[in-house]
Amino acid sequence: MSVRIDGREFPADGSILDAVLAAGIDLPHLCKDDNLPAIGACRTCLVEADGRVVAACSAPASSVREVLTTTERVERIRRGVLELTAAMGDPRPDLPHGPCGVQARQTFAAHAGVSNGLSRRERTAVDSTNPFFSFVETACILCGRCVAACQQLQHIGAIGLAGAGLATRVTPGASITFRESICTSCGSCVAACPTSALSPKTGGAE
Amino acid sequence: MKRVASTCPYCGVGCGIVLNVDEADRISWVDDVPENPSSDGMLCVKGRFGTTFVNHPDRLTTPLIRRNGNLEPAGWDEALDLVAAKFLEFRGAFGSFASAKATNEDAFVQQKFVRLVMGTNNVDHCTRLCHSPSVEAMLQQLGSGATSNSYSDYEDASCIVLVGCDPGSNHPVVASRMRRAIDSRGTRLVVVNPRRIEMCERADIFLQNHPGTDVAVFNGMARAILDAGLQDGAFVASRTEGFDAWLAAIRETTVEDCAAIAGLDAADLRAAGLLYADPPRLAWQPADWRPGSCLVWGMGVTQHTNGTDNAHSLLNLALLTGQVGRPGCGVSPLRGQNNVQGCGDAGCVPDSLPGYQRYEDATIRPFEDLWGAELSRDQGLKATDMVEQIAVGAIRAMYIVGENPLLSEPNLHHATDLFRKLDFLVVQDLFLHETAELADVVLPACSFAEKDGTFTNSERRVQRVRQAIPAVGESRPDWAIVCEIARRICPNVEIDPRQFDYEGPAAIFAEMARLTPFLRGLSYERLDAEGGIQWPCPEPGHPGTPYLYAESFPRGLGKFVPVRQGALADEETDAEYPLILNTGRILYHWHGGTITRRVEGLLDRVGVIPVAVHPNDAESAGIADGDPVMVMSRRGRLSGEALVTDAVQPGALFVPFVKLQDSAANFLTNNVYDPESRIPEYKVCAVRIEKKRERKRMEAAGEPSRP
C-alpha cells in the first residue's frame, strides 16, 4: 500500500501526516503530538488529498491516492490558518525540537500580534508559580495538546480547557495556580506545547 | 545542542529519556521517549526536571584523604595506593556496599573485586533495606526474585491489587499506566494500605488495615477465596506443592478473625479476595481471554520484622488463584532504585553469584575457570549484619559505593557510632554525604550522565545508559575506580591483574552475560539496535521474556508456605510514645534526598519534612496544619511541619524518609530486623508528636534533656 506525495510514492503507513513527515516534508502540525492520538484542532497540517483540502493528521494515508502539500490553494489556506493562529496572541514557536515547521515559524514571525481585524483574545495571565515551568497565556493557541497530555497520557487531569469563544483558556482550575493545583510537575504538557506557552523555567543546572 | 538517548536515573520504572545537552555541557531539557515500552512517552517530575544535580557545585571533583582529622584533596594515585594498601591490610574483615544507582557493569566489577580479590562474599546493596523479604520469599516459593510481569500487564489486567506502596509518589509513570487502565480499560483496583494514598481515589475496594497485619489480610483473602471455591484447582494440582499444609494453617482462622486483627470490615476483605481470584471480563477482552489480576507491592509489605512472612502470604494468594504466567496477571515487587534489579542480577548479594547462582560446584566453577582462582563458598554478611558486626570487630574496613547508609540505616545514632568504630572507611560517590563525612578516603564517581552502561528496570528490561556530558572534575566511572584498586591489590593475593583490564563497559557486560544464563543472549550491539530487552534472554536470537512462569517455575513447582499472623511489630506504643510512625516517600524527593536536595525546584516544592497527622491527634496535641512540630522516639527526634490529614489513621503518623533541614525519619526508626531477610522495621516505631516551641522559649529553657 503506498500513497503518492508531491509526485513520489511512499508507504501509506498511519495518517497522511505520518506519511508526509516520514517522507521528510516540512509540514506544520501544531496540535499533533507523537505521544497522543490526533486532536485535529489547529488545522495547520492542511494538505490537498485527491482534490480535497483535509487535515493530514486526521485522515489515514491509505484512504487517499495522491497528496499534494504545496499547491497554490492549500498553501493559501494553510497560510490563512497560521495567520489566524498567530493573531490569537503571541505564539512563540521556538522550542528547539518543536513540531512547528519552517512555514509556521515564518508565518508566526511575520504575523505575531497582527490581528487581521479580528478581536484578540484578552487573556494575558502569566503563571510562574511552578518551580519547573511557566505558563504564558498570550502564547497559547488553544490547540489542546497540553490538556490531552495531562488527561489522556498521564491521566492526571490537572489542567483543562475552560470557557468558550474568545474567553477560552487553558487552566489548572478556577482561580488557582499551577502550584496549588493537583499538577505533579511531570512536564508532559511542557513537552507537548508547540508554542512555548508552557516552557521550562531554566535551561541549565542549579 | 546534543541529544543523547539514555535511561532515567531515579526509580525502578526505568523510563526512556533523551538528554538535551547545551554548548556548556549542561543538561538543558529532558525529552520523553514515546517508543520506549516501559515508559510509553511519559516521565515524572524527577526524570523530567530532576537531573540537574549532575552539575551541582557540591559535586566531588577530586579524591579526598583524611589528614589530621580533615578530608583534604588528593591525587588519584595517592588515594588509590592508600586504599589498596589498607584494603589488603584488612582483608578478612572487609565488607562492601554496592550501588543500586550505578550500572550493571559497575556492580559486576565490584562484586568480582570483593569475591576474587578480597576473598569474601561480604557484598550487598540497598535491596536489603527494601525488597529482601520479597526476594527471599520469591526465591523460596518460585525460584526467582524478579517481577514476573511487564508494566503492560497492568493495562491488560482486570484487577490490580496494590499493597503497601504509593506508586503516585515513587513510581509515577507506573501509576499513570494504572490510571489509564482503570479510566480507559475498566481495570478494577484494590488498595491495601494503612494510609489513604492518592490511588485510592480510583479504588473499588480500599482496605485500610492496621500496620503489621498483612498476613491476616492475605490469609483472610485466601480463606474467602477457598470458602467461595474460587481457587484455581488445576493450577494448584499441576503447578504447586505444599498446598495441604498451607490449607491447614489457613483453616485455623476465618475471614472474620482476620478482619478483626487487621481492623477491617469482613465483607470488604472477602470482596477483595473474590475480586482478585475471579476478576471480571472487561469489554475489550476477547472471549478466549482469561481475566487476570496483578499483585503489586512495596515496602509496606517488606519493612517489618515479619516482612518475609508478609511476602509469603501474598505469594500464596497468587499460587492459589493461578494469577501468574499469563498476560494481564503476575506478581510485582515494585523496585525503588533505577538499577536495584540489575545490582542483584550482577551478583552484589552475599548469598549468590551473578544470576542468583548459589555457591555450588556446578555454578561456581565457570566463574573460577574464567577468573582463574578459587572463590569462597561461604555465605557473606548481609548489609545490616555487616554494620552490626562492626561492633565486634568482624568488619574493620568498608568500601561503600553509591550508598549513604548513615541516612538509610535505621536508628542512625546507633549506626553512626558503629561506622565511627571502623578502622578504614572508603566512600565512593557524587557528593560528600553523611557517610562520606566519616570516611578515611572519599573517591569521586561519575554520575549516570557521564558514563556508559546499562540499567535493569523493575520489569527486567536491560536498557542502555549513555554518556552525555564529560566527567565532572576528576570523577571517574565506578567500574574504572574499582578496577584501579583491584589491579593494585591483585599481585599481593596471587590474582592476575589483567582480570580487571576492561576496554570499557561493553566488555564488562559481555563477561557478565557469559556467566549469567538468563543474560547470555544480550549484548551492547543488540541493545543499541533493538532497544531494551527483558531477561531471561538465554541466547542471541531470543526476543526476551515479557512475563515469567508460563510453563513452570525456576524451582519446578510453586511452593505454598504456611504463615500465621505474628506480633504486629517489635515496638509497642505506650503512654510516653503513644503513636505509630510509618515512613515512606513523597513525589518530590528521592529516598534520603542526597540527590534531590541538589535540585532547586524539588527543594522548592518540599523543603521541610511534612509530618502527616490525623486531625484527632493534631487537636489533642494542639497542632494546626502547617505548625512546626517535633516527633520523638526512644532513639531520636526530627523537626518537621504538620500536615493535618485524615489520610492517616488516628494514632498514626507518616513521614517521608528524606532528610531535610538536618532532620530525618531514620533517627527515630528501630534497628530490629526480620529474622530471615534481615530487613529493618522501618514501617513501625512508637513516637510522640509535639508542637515545636517558639525559638525564644527554647533558648530560655535550654536544650531539652531527653533525646
Break the fold down into its secondary structure elements and pairings.
The complex is a heterodimer of chains A (206) and B (707).
Chain A: E1 2-5, E2 8-11, H1 16-22, E3 46-49, E4 52-55, E5 66-68, H2 72-87, H3 101-111, E6 126-127, E7 133-136, H4 145-153, E8 160-162, E9 169-171, H5 188-192, E10 198-200
Parallel strand pairs in A: 1-5
Antiparallel strand pairs in A: 1-2, 3-4, 3-5, 6-7, 7-10, 8-9
Chain B: E1 2-7, E2 16-21, E3 27-32, H1 45-49, E4 64-67, E5 70-73, H2 76-89, E6 94-97, H3 104-117, E7 123-124, H4 132-141, H5 152-156, E8 159-163, H6 167-170, H7 172-185, E9 188-192, E10 205-207, H8 214-227, H9 233-239, E11 240-241, H10 243-250, H11 255-262, H12 266-277, E12 293-297, H13 299-302, H14 307-321, E13 330-333, H15 340-345, H16 361-371, H17 383-389, E14 397-401, H18 405-408, H19 412-420, E15 424-429, E16 441-444, E17 453-456, E18 461-465, H20 478-489, H21 505-515, H22 524-530, E19 533-534, E20 558-559, E21 579-584, H23 600-605, E22 610-613, H24 615-620, E23 628-633, E24 637-644, E25 652-656, E26 670-673, E27 680-681, E28 685-691, H25 695-701
Parallel strand pairs in B: 6-7, 6-14, 8-9, 8-12, 9-10, 11-20, 12-13, 14-15, 15-16, 21-25, 22-24
Antiparallel strand pairs in B: 1-2, 2-3, 4-5, 4-16, 17-18, 18-19, 21-28, 22-25, 23-24, 23-28, 26-27
Describe it.
The complex is a heterodimer of chains A (206) and B (707). Chain A has two domains: 2-111, Ubiquitin-like (UB roll) (Roll); 126-200, Alpha-Beta Plaits (2-Layer Sandwich), CATH 3.30.70.20. In chain A, 23% of the residues lie in helices and 17% in strands. Chain A contains five helices and ten strands, in the order E-E-H-E-E-E-H-H-E-E-H-E-E-H-E. In chain A, helix 2 (72-87) crosses helix 3. The longest helix of chain A has 16 residues, at 72-87. Chain A is globular, with a radius of gyration of 18 Å. Chain B has four domains: 2-55, ADC-like domains (N-terminal domain of TfIIb, Single Sheet); 64-128 and 339-531, Rossmann fold; 132-334, Dimethylsulfoxide Reductase, domain 2 (3-Layer(aba) Sandwich); 579-701, Barwin-like endoglucanases, CATH 2.40.40. The termini of chain B are far apart. Chain A binds chain B through residues 34-35, 96-97, 131-132, 153-156, 184-188, 190-191, 200-201, 203-206, and chain B through 1, 20, 22, 24, 26-29, 31-32, 34, 41-45, 48-49, 52-56, 168, 172, 176, 179-180, 183, 587-588, 600-602, 604-605.
